[in-house]
């Protein structure tokens, strides 16, 4: 595997306006905090594909890679392994206004490591689960409902009015 890239020099592609190149890069992914839990990528060094096109005064960029995040299921706290597909785009067009600037591009330098880190966070699902239909933990006793099965139920707390009635009867 080629060495990893933190900062990629777009200048060395020597693109003129309208030209594009595809480059394979190895980016280093970092662990992250999500919903109070810690998740780590299965492989820190991740093969990614960078598409760079030269616009009149800047670049149009696309970064794609696959990651697997490992950490606790947010419902049952068992181990979860979540595949995530990242397809991120950035435009950096100096002179084109604030929204045409990319925070990851400075001149010809692309901060591909920071971009990959943020793109991974943005691609996270709403909730990380061990499986789509994870039943989570019982709200009353905390048992794992995936293991306990569908007949795991608790008797409802007795209605206080009936408790009063039974007291009356005892007197
Ligand atoms: Zn689960
Ligand atoms: Zn229970």
> Order of SSEs, N→C?
EEEEEEEEEHHH
The overall pLDDT average reads 91
Question: Helix coverage percent of residues?
Answer: 10-25%
How many separate structural domains? Answer: 2
* Rounded Rg: 26 Å
Number of helices: 3
Q: Which assembly state applies to the chains in this document?
A: single chain
Question: Outline of this structure?
Answer:
The protein has 171 residues and is an alpha+beta fold.
Description:
It is a single chain. The chain contains 3 helices and 9 strands; from the N terminus they run βββββββββααα. The protein has helices at residues 112-122, 145-148, 160-170; strands at 7-9, 20-28, 32-34, 37-41, 45-54, 59-72, 79-92, 105-106, 109-111. The mean pLDDT is 91. By secondary structure, the protein is an alpha+beta fold. The strands form 2 sheets. Strands 2, 3, 4, 5, 6 and 7 form a 6-stranded antiparallel sheet that branches. The protein has a 3-stranded antiparallel sheet with strand order 1-9-8. Bound molecules: zinc ion (2 copies). Residues 138, 140-141, 143, 152, 154 line the site of one zinc ion.
